[in-house]
Each structure stands twice: as C-alpha cells, then as structure tokens.
Amino acid sequence: MPLMIQPKKAIKKLTPYVDGNHSEYLINNHNKILKLDSNEPTAKPSPKVTTAIINYLSEGPMNWYPDVKSEELCRHISKYTQLPIDHILTFNGSDHALECIARTFLDKGDETIIFQPTYDHFRVYAQSCDATIITSNEDQPGSLTDKITSVKSSNLRMVYMVNPNNPTGFTIPLDQIKTALETFSNVLFIIDEAYFEFCGITAASLVTEFNNIIITRSFSKAFGLASLRCGYILAHPTICEWINKIRVGKNVNAIAQTAATAALKDIEYMKAYVEEVNLTKEWILGKFKEMGISTIKTPVNFILLKVECPELVTEYFEKQNIYLRNRSMVPNLKGFIRLTIGSRLIMNRFWKIFESAPKELLFETNKTNLAI
Ligand SMILES: Cc1ncc(COP(=O)(O)O)c(C=O)c1O
C-alpha cells in the first residue's frame, strides 16, 4: 500500500541531529569501554544519588505520576543558583528545554542566529518550527553585539549560543552578553550552559535583571545523570509561565527528580570530580604537546585533537573499545576529533593506548597504506 501520510513540510526537509555512536551498548562488560565521545563524566554520580534512588525504588510512590512541578528539586536548584524559585523550570534533559523554547517562541520565518560551529540540537528544534536559521562564525572579530549587528536580518527573534561552546570552548564574556541583552531587547537570547560546572562561567546574574534571556543547564555532565534525563532553565517568571504551557511536567520522571535533588545535596562530590578533570586536562594536554599533536584547549571537560585521518583514528580506537567523536565534518574543524576528559585513572588508560597507535594515523606521513 503506498504511503499516503506525509510529515509537515518543515520535517520533510529537516536535516536531523547526528547522534553519537551507540555500539558501546552492545558490549556487555562496560568496564572494558572508555566512553570519551559525549562529554559525560567517566565516574558514577555521588553515592548519595544511588542511595536516594534505591530508597525511592523501595519506598517511593512508583504508581503515582511524578511531581509535575518538581518542587523539591526546584527548591534545591534555587539554593544552588541563588535565584528565586519562580525563575526555574525543570525538564527531561536540557535538550527537552531547548525543544520547548523553540516551540514556545518560534513561528514560521522567525530568524534565529546560531554561532558556528556548535551543538546542533537547537538548530533541529528551531527548523522543525519553520524558523529560519542564520549562521554566523563564532570567531569573527568584534563583540557579540557587533556580530549580531553584522548579520543581515529583518525578523530576528532569537540568538542561541553555547557558553562555553561545544566543541570549541569559545567563551563569550558576561559584559558582552549584558550589552547584547540591552541592545536587542526584543530578541530572546538562549545561553546553553550545559558545561557550567566545569568552569563556573555563567550569565545567571543577568536573569533577574533582563527578561530576554533564558539559561539552560543540565544534570548530564558534571553531575553524571545523563541516562536519567534532567535539566532546567533559568528565566524571567513570565517566560517560564509561557514555556510551562507546553512543557509536560510529568516528563521529569520521579527517579530523575530524586537523583538530581540528591546530587545537589552533595555538591562537594561534583566539585571534587571537576577538580580532578581540570588537573587531568592539563596533564594530558602536556602529553599531546610532547608527542607533537595539536590541540584546542577548552575551559570545560573536553578538548579537540588535530589528527591526520579523523575517520580512521575514531575507527581504530573503537576497535579497542575507546569511543571518540569525529568533528572533522563540522565547518572550520577539518581534521579534529573531540576527546572527553575524565578521571586521571581513565585518561591514563586512554593515554597508554593512544601513544601506541600507528603514527601514520595521527600524523601526516606517507598517505598510502593507511588501511587498519
Ligand atoms: C551544549 C549542549 N547542550 C545540551 C546538551 C544535552 O544535554 P542534556 O543531556 O541535558 O539534554 C549537550 C550534550 O552533549 C550539549 O553539549
């Protein structure tokens, strides 16, 4: 029978987000795997998270819907961010927040600036709403305001930026964000702070001063809860109310709420992990330098490595159960792979295998005979 159903036009022409590799899920013994492709921590979350989940599983009302307002979690986020509770809304991961933001604010033809290269999910959500994406290079000269002004736009509604950016680590200073918020008061700025905990860089102080900013945050990175899906936004209460009209509060499941709350009760654990990652990053950057590998350092838990054959390098390491992210197809990042930085123990294991990899994969030598 011919398929008579069609998706809406915006979906038909949409280029989807390219997910990371998932073949690691086919390997039963997870201890064999070095998962360094998606910027999750290499360590498990705080033991207090595990205890809280076990308690929930034995005592919690699993037959009830979760708290649709995530009240307890919001109280802890409020304490953590120093922002009033009506400026906070929780989501099933920060990707879910990005999706709800696009659906709340973007109509057909609304223009959205996305600085490139960057995390690609917001582009997908915006285009699915028929918005028009205008790309601009993050490293062009000038301030954020200059960059936005230089874009030819007649109907600019939104600017999305990851700060510090994934995958380059490019960071926009707070004073530039503030000036842009003042200058373009009818434009909504989405600041994706998924990696905030690794560097402390944040625009959270601007959220009570301006009503045209939304910060998105994640429990998937420094807090180690990626599989449970939990994130939140920080924004003006009216902005939160509008987004809440389409947000499904039930999607922030009870185990995610329990786990995120427990993680916020053990900030010291997260901070110790972040400190270890930052020290390990310096150590391994030194190792790459000694070896003659060019790198791009970021203020967060990943770096970029320049190699001769990114496809073959990722393939070679995958055969050794090491997962890296090839970013070579991204504009301006030809030849680069992204490496998540984890604990010292894990990165030691990675380094031992990396330094014994065939040199012709890593460095430009005789280009023939590269089969692995
Ligand atoms: C910049 C950025 N934003 C958001 C996300 C997704 O976060 P979450 O797991 O909270 O949906 C990622 C994940 O890699 C990311 O790099």
Provide a concise account of the structure shown:
This protein is of the alpha/beta class. It has helices at about 10, 45-60, 70-80, 95-105, 120-130, 145-150, 175-185, 195-200, 235-245, 255-265, 265-290, 310-320, 345-355, 360; strands at about 35, 90, 110-115, 130-135, 155-160, 190, 215-220, 230-235, 295, 300-305, 320-325, 325, 335-340.
List the helices and strands and how they pair.
Elements: H1 9-12, E1 34-35, H2 47-59, H3 71-81, E2 88-91, H4 94-105, E3 111-116, H5 121-128, E4 132-137, H6 144-149, E5 156-162, H7 174-183, E6 188-192, H8 196-199, E7 213-218, E8 231-235, H9 237-244, H10 254-264, H11 267-291, E9 295-296, E10 302-306, H12 310-319, E11 322-323, E12 325-326, E13 336-340, H13 344-355, H14 359-362
Parallel strand pairs: 1-11, 3-4, 3-5, 5-6, 6-7
Antiparallel strand pairs: 2-8, 7-8, 9-10, 10-13, 12-13
This protein binds pyridoxal-5'-phosphate.
Describe the structure.
- It is a single chain.
- The protein has 372 residues and is an alpha/beta fold.
- Helix content is 37%, strand content 15%.
- It has 14 helices and 13 strands.
- It has helices at residues 9-12, 47-59, 71-81, 94-105, 121-128, 144-149, 174-183, 196-199, 237-244, 254-264, 267-291, 310-319, 344-355, 359-362, and strands at residues 34-35, 88-91, 111-116, 132-137, 156-162, 188-192, 213-218, 231-235, 295-296, 302-306, 322-323, 325-326, 336-340.
- It has a 7-stranded mixed sheet with strand order 2-8-7-6-5-3-4, sandwiched between helices. A 4-stranded antiparallel sheet has the order 9-10-13-12, covered by helices on one side. A two-stranded parallel ribbon has the order 1-11.
- Helix 11 runs parallel beside helix 13.
- The relative contact order is 0.16.
- Mean pLDDT is 95; it is low at 366-372.
